[in-house]
Write a structure and sequence with these properties.
It is a single chain. It is built from 15 helices and 29 strands. The protein is α/β, with parallel strands linked by helices and 519 residues long.
């Protein structure tokens, strides 16, 4: 084992995204060259007070060996951590597709060294020969990557779907198969997100008919979707033109995505307009709003609450959810549904019509890609542990000749000659990032949670004045506690003794234990 660790041909280390959905980041190394694929964020499973997102803990990574980062696509779970990473490793050169490059530049709002790469454009980075190849996903210009170094081959497709009519992808697999000849091992690292679904994932073109049917109705239409789904955005713009209805953009993220699509040449400014330019919304308009998950203060949430400035729901309006529900958001979305219905609107979702499709590989997609490559080993990526196991089981059962392994974040997978070896490493918890992009210790979050649950009491050690926040207490009870504090500490005042005594008084008086701070 020690010999392989020192003299490996190729090493793969997932830093994020393997054992969780989000925070995708992967390291690939030879003895001389290191490169990174993606630097994403993940979002807290529970409401974490003051935390915007999480990123993988790469504090132990020596970035002096890594000088290049490849980006698969423009979703936040793949590029959201890029700004912080470039602050830690400003020497990194970024490689991304045309649309993804536009998104990164607009998000970072500063100069960044990006090399635009294209489908099947061969790259050489140190020991690595790389072929980026186009895959279907729920945003534009998404890539998988083929990597070859020291007679070892890897195909990496973290987000993809692949049908028999995915011509660009299937042609790419033919080229990769030829290019990989002579490799000792061929390892596949493939998406696990939708592995439980049988058959093939629905294609984007298949949502066109039902969307056109709904949008053609002689009624006002409010449609919400994932703003980053540029294919869907283009579809709706094309339908609007075909049925002679004007598409109106509403929401910051919707405007951002449209702007990036125009800059990348996917759409033109004439495809849609700003809702703010229209004082009256009629059945000749399609209002395209961001916030499909019903997030607090999102555009859709404000419309549902009746506090939107530019669009108010009227009876018989239709609200079209051209999106799925991210697990954990069910309660929030149901509340939005109810609010719209109570105002007289009709709701249409992906459960009623074919108006949304996943961007991730079902079993048929996985099988098609694997069949078209001379794969010897397979490792599931991009998914929570439960999904990794399902991916492992599916490929193990379907392809008896392929050696299927299962790893987690921070494990190291070594390729040497015809040998594949995995060394287990203990996982590290993601870092918590607040809205100012500062790393917040978990101990502070624990303090915030205690304050949020129990409230806080403050005692001034000089004046012995007592005040509480977030605690239900009468004026009489407050005066009594302050009086007892003054009596007890009229002379000697020890900080900790004062804190403990105040907490005991609160518990005796109120039956609860707020956080006590001696100021």
């Amino acid at each position: 084992m020690k010999d392989i660790q020192k003299n490996f041909d190729l090493c793969f280390t997932p830093i994020g995204g393997v054992g969780q959905i989000g925070g995708n980041m992967s390291l690939f190394e030879t003895g001389n060259t290191g490169l990174i694929i993606d630097s994403g964020t993940l979002f807290p499973r529970d409401k974490v007070l003051g935390i915007n997102y999480l990123i993988p803990d790469y504090s132990d990574v020596d970035f002096s060996k890594f000088k290049h980062i490849l980006i698969t696509h423009s979703h936040e779970d793949h590029i959201g951590g890029l700004d912080l990473l470039l602050q830690s490793a400003p020497h990194l050169k970024v490689y991304a597709s045309p649309y993804t490059s536009v998104v990164i530049k607009n998000k970072l709002k500063r100069s960044v060294d990006i090399q635009v790469i294209r489908h099947l454009e061969n790259l050489s980075i140190g020991d690595f020969e790389i072929i980026p190849f186009e895959v279907d996903h729920s945003t534009a210009d998404t890539f998988g990557f083929y990597l070859k170094a020291n007679s070892q081959s890897i195909v990496f497709a973290s987000d993809f779907k692949c049908h028999t009519d995915s011509h660009n992808t299937l042609k790419a697999l033919d080229k990769i198969s030829d290019f990989s000849k002579g490799s000792n091992n061929f390892l596949s690292l493939l998406d696990s997100t939708s592995v439980r679904a049988k058959g093939f994932t629905t294609r984007e073109v298949e949502v066109y008919d039902d969307l056109k049917y709904l949008l053609s109705k002689d009624t006002r239409s409010l449609l919400t979707m994932f703003s980053s789904n540029i294919h869907r955005l283009k579809t709706i713009c094309e339908i609007g033109k075909e049925i002679n209805k004007k598409v109106l953009l509403y929401g910051r993220s919707m405007h951002f995505s449209f702007k990036c699509a125009v800059e990348a040449g996917i759409l033109t400014p004439s495809h849609a307009e700003d809702i703010e330019n229209f004082s009256t919304i009629t059945s000749d308009h399609i209002v395209l709003a961001s916030g499909c998950q019903g997030n607090f203060r999102s555009t859709l949430k404000n419309i549902s609450k009746g506090v939107s400035k530019f669009f108010k729901i009227q009876k018989n309006d239709q609200v079209i959810f051209s999106s799925s529900i991210i697990p954990g958001n069910e309660k929030e979305i149901q509340g939005v549904y109810n609010a719209f219905v109570e105002q007289g609107a009709d709701i249409h979702t992906y459960k009623d019509f074919t108006i949304h499709c996943s961007g991730h590989a079902a079993q048929g997609d996985l099988e098609l890609l694997i069949k078209n490559l001379p794969i010897t080993h397979h490792v599931p990526i991009h998914g929570e542990t439960f999904l990794l196991k399902k991916n492992f089981e599916f490929v193990s059962e379907k392809f008896k000749n392929i050696k299927t392994k299962w790893i987690r974040d921070f494990d190291k997978l070594y390729l040497k000659g015809e040998t594949l070896y995995i060394h287990d490493y203990p996982p590290k918890k993601p870092l918590l990032i607040d809205y100012a992009k500062h790393t917040i210790p978990r101990s502070i979050i624990s303090q915030r949670r205690k304050i949020a649950e129990s409230g806080v009491a403050i005692v001034n050690i000089d004046t012995l004045k007592f005040s509480v926040y977030g605690v239900k207490i009468s004026e009489k009870q407050s005066h009594k506690i302050e009086s007892l504090i003054n009596k007890k500490f009229s002379r000697d005042r020890d900080n900790e003794e004062l804190r403990v005594y105040t907490r005991q008084l609160l518990h005796k008086t109120l039956g609860s234990r707020p956080v006590v701070i001696v100021n």
